[in-house]
Amino acid sequence: MAETKILKPIREAGFAGYGAYIPQYRLPAKEVARVWTDGKGSLPINEKAVAGLDEDVITMSIEAARNALARAALDPTEIRAVWVGSESHPYAVKPTSTVVAEAIGATPHTQAADWEFACKAGTEAIQAAIGFVGSGMANYALAIGMDTAQGRPGDALEYTAGAGGAAFIIGPAEDAVCVIEGSYSYATDTPDFWRRANETYPEHGERFTGEPAYFSHIQTAAEFLMEATETTASDYRFAVFHQPNTKFPVRIAKSLGFEQEQIEAGLLVPDIGNTYAGSAMVGLTSILDVAEPGDRILMVSYGSGAGSDAFSLRATDLLPERREAAPGTLSYVKRRTEIDYATYARFRGKLVLK
Amino acid sequence: MNRLASMETSQHWRLRQQRYALVGEVCPHCTTKIFPPRDICPDCGEDARDLYQFSGRGEVYSHTTVYQAPSGHSSNAPYPVAIVRLEEGPLVTAQLTDIGDQPVEIGTQVEMVTRKLGADGERGMLVYGYKFRPILAER
Amino acid sequence: MMPVGEHWDLSLRHLALDAISAARADSGGLRPQALYVANVLAPALSGQSHLGALLADFTGLRGVEASTIEASGASGGVAVRQAYLALTSGALDVAIVLGVEKITDKASGQVQAALATSTDSEYEAVHGVTPSTQAALLMQRYLYEHGAPKDSMAGFSMTAHQNAVTNPNAMFRKAIRHEQYARAPIISEPLNTFDVAPLGDGAAALVLARAAALPNRHDYPQVVIAGSAVSTSALAVHDRPNPLHLTAASQSAEAAMLQASLSLEDIGLFELHDSFSIFAALSLEAAGFAAPGHGWKLAQNGDISLAGKIPISTFGGSKARGDPGAATGIYQLAEATLQLQGRANENQVPNAAIAMTQCLGGSGATASTHILRRPN
Hints:
Chain A has 14 helices and 14 strands. Chain A is an alpha/beta fold.
């Protein structure tokens, strides 16, 4: 049954290069608590990454894409699609992707589009890129998941809504640092989180975001993929899941039979927060920074509304050398300038100026 | 009136390659690298229109901080500005970014990043272009 | 010359009228055939262009040839150069050159943005650069390259303020001490408030005439333009091979001296463009009064004071008299004229016979140098 629902291209595809970007500012969760709860209550993460005044999904995507290009050692004019998944595109209408494509030198012989599916917009773009490359329509396609996530002041999301993401260049398997063995996508209409048009901040269903939404979708998607690929948790050296907070990915990993050490390398949420469309993808870059040839990796994203994309990946012999060509994800995580709530409010446009 | 000094949409569009990616020119006669592009080689005076992709690396030639920003830049103030000596030779004026707690000095090694230079008000276009930051510690 | 400052009750045209009326009265009532207006900021700050017709009409000169000359801070000198060319060509007998700026009708952010248009708008202003930023970048590099102390520019500011005490047209008539300079708030590192000339409303006018057109009797010796020159360099500071060498200033000074058959030793005073203190040092070096890196030292030992070797900013300069933007060059020439006519009162440079004036536009992208001589 499962094998008929798995997504496998005619031509095997993989990641020719990958790159991360995380801005340098950090807002500790205890600083949010100081302002809103008198410092009481438990904290969902340590701190989150915050974009600077001159950063947005466009600028962050450009840097991640440049890192991916450096690793792929690819002439940017070889790229036939530049796809950016995000829920914080700087323009409501006007593509993020055309600016990114122009900046990295991929224009004009390229497809360009923006993707939106809450926190899985980036992995959706990866799946589409697999189709693009796997069908033979193109040799290389760039898929990016990047966000400068929004959270209403004082809301639970404000502790975690972070900034960052990753770019992947999908290409033929023989030129890949990591091949994609198969993927699977699972979607239902589950309204756990949304942002209406023209609204600044999202709304969420509080505890409804848990069982029927995050856990059910990731669990189902992961199980389907593992069944179809005839794998179990122990076949994977690493796993990475969407990371809205520290608790959720740890719990879903356990429920799927993964040990803590399998998810440790990709678990960045305690130190950078929930980077929404970038979350699982930037976690994957951190894994690729340490994985060895032959290692298998499971990635499952989750996007509210709701759906999950699951990927079974295998690192190749090209990985160790290629990854040296760009800064490692941890060098971005460690690059850290702490800010207070007032500075955060200024950076994120939360100061009322009129 | 929160506008950039030069806010014409077509003016920014025309400059997109040089602004986003430091695409300048190289003189086919004397190989001088030219940024900003000016079509005539400043060294030998010959026609120079061949595009050249600069590496983006350089060092700080001089620097300061702007506290009294012109209208259009006030929401970003205070901001550091530098003249950077690109490794290919030319000087270029740009803002520095992501300084953090690191001291900036003449000679500090920097690399180009593409950042938001400003916005044409609440409703107008966003303007992106080159800035420089201290070279990111690798790995 | 109108006092430079905040003229809340005077508009652009009234400033112009007062300056032109005073200059014409001083000339013995000469009627000009042309009006050259030096102005930069009226289009941005007063919403007004086409100043030639406007001001010719308003100042009682309806009908004369009139136009605006714009070369940023060098506009005044360039306008005088245009009038000088017209007179020496024989096309005109009498011309008025007016420098006028109305600054205070707009808020500081708008003024900074208007000033920034004198930088390269696509490669400097778009990055938030203003003339202050350019000056700060040059001063930072100067201090580094020449190992000059942080307070090396203090002497320029102190000299200017000292000279302005006795200038009734000055914006700041108060001497400052070194401690005040050292404690001054930072504008844009390493520039502090005493390195920056304060912008103010201002207007000044000169009546220029061919010798043959002068009245037979006049109250003061008539000063002769012995040299007149304008040179340019790259607009953007980064486009200059050595940003610390103001080549336009060097070239125009050299050309003016060559025309006047004079050398540096003949110059009795030098009204230079001290809109920022660093430009005083760079201008002294560019003209040859000091070797590169040594200009600031002239401000340490009294060389630039009224009784010194090469007096500068004799009425306070832009720093203390006030910075009237495009009118700077006209103020400089008017002040140098007073010196050569022996009308400078307490600001008199002893035995002044030859004066050099130089105004800079856009951090030295344009430089205009004039040499004035007292007739024998």
